[in-house]
Specification:
Largest sheet: 8 strands, parallel
Helix content: 25-40%
Radius of gyration: 30 Å
Distance between the termini: 57 Å
Strand content: 5-15%
CATH architecture of the largest domain: Alpha-Beta Barrel
Shape: elongated
Number of domains: 2
Structural class: alpha/beta
Number of helices: 11
Length: 343
């Protein structure tokens, strides 16, 4: 059974992360929700902050961004370009609801939690960078709703502290997402085997927040037990938004989701024995056949009987019991060997 009430044990919950890829254009944000639905996502996620709820407007060295894509500006300037206007959110949630998608968001401070509560989101998300903000996690947990915690950069003790804060303050359920908080992330740093270990250590469901540039990591995560996959997407990487360079385009998101569905179908259940469709192939198993004409009374040898395809004769394991015994009748080449031929 799933450890969380909102996750399906047999179907991975796939989140299309809009992040800053709307380019602060409402029509683009609405189109992205509809594209997420077309691609097969279960939910669409936004981020609720303003430059002032995340940082301060300062150009001191501490606030200068050093990143190949984001560098040359302050944190305040970056977040000013990236944030989602809060007065959009009610309409965006309605568009998601109308399209059969779950709408939720990453909250970054108490005021954004309060605003999301007014929108009646079903659960809350904590970003990797806020995982160490224990007062924020405690505040979220007091809503009694499930919390999704990204674990990028976090040590085991930091994860434990966050989980304890969530569970100790009323969080209905907790999900931990394996994450590497670099943009884009290197698949070699993903260490997906950490996911089942986290599930065991903390008795929670696990998933992945995948910042890599391909779908292979997410598919592998599902094979290792991920119940949730979160992937940034954009309508086009030609749209130069703050996060577009590491986001999936719609056809890539659809391929990722299709491959996840194939993977989880293939994982199936523990089962031994022949499948319904394998029955047609069973005839091509090896069995014992006469490979020369054999006369009545002649001794069976490795020259006149062999284990070959197809089935029809005795199983190859009986070869050692038949050799040096005599044939009870004449046997034509190409005849399957059965017990009635053996003296």
């Amino acid at each position: 059974m799933p450890k969380t009430s909102f996750l399906n044990n047999n179907k991975c919950f796939i989140v299309a992360e809009v992040s800053a890829n709307h380019g602060q254009d409402l029509k683009t944000a609405i189109k992205m929700i509809k594209e997420a639905k077309r691609c097969g996502a279960d939910a669409v996620k936004f981020q609720v902050y303003t430059p002032d709820t995340l940082t301060i407007n300062s150009d001191k060295k501490y606030f200068q961004v050093k990143h190949p894509k984001w560098g040359g500006q302050t944190l305040y300037e970056l977040y000013k370009k990236a944030y989602t206007p809060w007065d959009w959110l009610k309409k965006l949630k309605k568009v998601a609801d109308d399209n059969g998608l779950i709408f939720f968001s990453t909250a970054y401070d108490m005021t954004s939690v309060d605003y999301l509560e007014e929108l009646e989101v079903p659960f809350h998300k904590v970003s990797s960078f806020e995982l160490v903000d224990i007062p924020l996690i405690e505040y979220m947990a007091k809503t009694k709703k499930p919390l999704i915690l990204s674990t990028g950069m976090a040590s085991l003790s930091e994860i434990k502290e966050a989980v304890d804060a969530a569970k100790g303050n009323g969080a209905k359920d907790v999900v931990l997402l394996k994450c590497v908080s670099s943009y884009p992330a290197d698949p070699l740093e993903m260490n997906l085997r950490t996911m089942p270990d986290m599930a065991d250590k903390f008795n929670v469901d696990v998933g992945i927040s995948d910042h890599t540039l391909n779908s292979g990591v997410s598919v592998a995560a599902v094979a290792l037990g991920a119940k949730m996959v979160e992937k940034h997407f954009t309508l086009s990487r030609k749209m130069k938004t703050p996060d577009s360079f590491f986001s999936s385009e719609p056809h890539e998101l659809k391929d990722l989701i299709d491959n996840i569905r194939i993977a989880e179908s293939a994982i199936g259940k523990i089962r031994y024995g022949i499948t319904e469709k394998e029955k047609e192939s069973r005839i091509f198993r090896r069995s014992l056949f006469a490979v020369r004409d054999i006369k009545k009374g002649e001794i069976f040898t490795e020259e006149n009987i062999r284990a070959i395809r197809p089935a029809g004769g005795l199983k190859p394991k009986y070869m050692k019991f038949i050799l040096k015994k005599k044939s009870l009748k004449n046997i034509k080449k190409g005849t399957p060997i059965n017990r009635g031929f053996i003296r």
